[in-house]
Amino acid sequence: MNLLPNDSYDTTMIAAPTICSLPEGLVIELSTPLTPIGGLDRESLARLVKRTVPASPALAAGLPGVGEGLDLPDSLRLELFTTLLQILPDWLPLFFGITGAHPDQTLSLARRLEAELQRFPIPPPVYWVDLPLWGHSNRGLPQSCHNLLQYLSRPLVLMNHPQVIRSKAKFLKHINLRTAVFKKLALLPQVSGLIYQGDMRRFLHYCAALATRPDFILYEADEYRFLTRPGARGLFSSGAQLFPSIWQQVAQVCWFPEDMKDKGGRSGSVWEWSELLLRLHDLYRVYPAALLKAGLHHLGVLDFPAVWPSTETPPAPVQERFLAMLAQVQGRLDFNPPR
Prior knowledge:
Layout: E1 25-29, H1 42-52, E2 58-61, H2 74-87, E3 94-97, H3 103-117, E4 126-130, H4 141-149, E5 156-160, H5 162-168, H6 179-186, E6 191-196, H7 200-208, E7 217-220, H8 223-228, E8 234-237, H9 244-255, H10 266-284, H11 288-298, H12 316-335
């Protein structure tokens, strides 16, 4: 792939960013398929996309956590992005991670990705995703975000993910966006959504801070909380890669339980599948990046379960229990698919 050299970028700011509504519903967060030597496994990526597209109004890739976006080199992240633009349907929205180790690296990667978008006569529907506390404190964050937005032509979705932030340093004092800081960030029109992981009290504070932004979308990032107490207008789910059609049906019931009133035994069947998804989630939640790849390899979607060297991997017994449960769910799906 030909990468544009740094000095080929236009250093002027983008004057007219595209502001549009974000997709709601189930957004499936993709793992990054890798070869054993650390390259992008394009064939596995194509199978993963084909598997997930029918069940989701949008996909997400290159994100921190399951997507390993914080560990992958920028060259591989750029290759992942350009490959996805080639294989995704041109109508399907893509959320893509731009977070770097520090704000300058985030800006550098974002500008490279923006340059790829400019190759399209009609730019594809792309939304940038940033975990701002990874490389910046709460202090001065709204101004830093404002500076980044000057170079972006697409909406920006922020992440609040204390588990990922804590992995950087276990004793960090501030692992969440302060509510006052979030309120200032939400005043920036191009900041269009937040992917939220954290306690419910803070979530409610964030909701209250959005009184002037009815267009702003809060996405749930905690699969367990969504399955037990759905509330947000959207869900980012990496576990949905395993059984997309089941997740699609369960999520629909979580959001619209009234639709099940006149559909016989289907509601009970879907809730039984919900319980199985909860049991699976309990097994992969501590090592999601490694175990989801192991699961996708077990299901024949990925050729290799390879993870980036810095990705935490589970003890063998943990993986064995997860794969045994996965096989149980797959067997039930083959015998008695949800109606």
